[in-house]
Amino acid sequence: MAVLKLYTYPHPVLRKKCERVGKVDDNMRKFLDDMLETMYADKGCGLAAPQVGVSKRVIVLDYATEEDAEKKPMYLVNPEIIWKSEETIIFCEGCLSLPDQRADVERYEKIRVHFIDYYGKEQEILAGGLLSIILQHEIDHLDGILYIDHLSRLKRTRLLKKLEKYYEEKNEK
Ligand code: NI
After folding, report:
1. Residues contacting residue 63 through CB under 8 Å, at least 6 positions apart
2. Does residue 87 or residue 171 have the better pLDDT?
3. 12-27 per-position pLDDT tens digit
């Protein structure tokens, strides 16, 4: 397994619409393993392929909370939201591609997702809570959408200014 290079805002690969995966083979499984390792190395709870520079519809995540003793990794290929609840939920989100920033984002509280798993089998899950939020955030990435796109123009501008400052300070070190 290997830790992959992470692409951060404003790299154009983050804005590209990803292509569907034809088949989950050994090469794809190796990529999924590498993505999960990269996510853990960067202390994220979700990672989408464009964040490692690959425009394919692939995400990995871990929805374990601090109370969970075990890791809860998930691999999703070609994930598709097939149902959304009317109720929404607000959660303070972050993203490895926008380091050191967070903002409140409104999402659907529950969603049903169809996807292909690590072994190439078709699956469907009903997700709520943290898992639902992570899934919506990561599936957005596959269409070139970042969580800042869900903010008001004012909040987005403010966050991007802070991000710019963060990059500048990091370069000075
Ligand atoms: Ni993200």
Report:
1. 45, 72, 74, 130, 131, 134
2. 87
3. 999 999 999 999 999 9
CA 160 to CA 173: how far, in whole Å? 20
Cα of 86 from ligand 1 centre, angstroms: 24
**DSSP string of 24-68?**
--HHHHHHHHHHHHHHHHTT-SEEEGGGGT--BSEEEEE---TT-
Ligand 1 centre to CA of 103 (Å) is 12
CA distances from 103 to 63, 69, 76, 106 (A): 19, 27, 25, 10
Structure tokens at 18: 């990803």
* Residues labelled catalytic: 138
Contacts 24+ apart (CB under 8 A), 139-143: 139/48, 139/59, 139/79, 139/80, 139/81, 139/113, 141/14, 141/48, 141/49, 141/50, 141/51, 141/59, 142/17, 142/18, 142/48, 142/49, 142/50, 142/57, 142/58, 142/59, 142/79, 143/17, 143/18
Q: What is the pTM of this model?
A: 0.96
Cα(33) to centroid of ligand 1, in Å? Answer: 18
Amino acid sitting at position 59: I
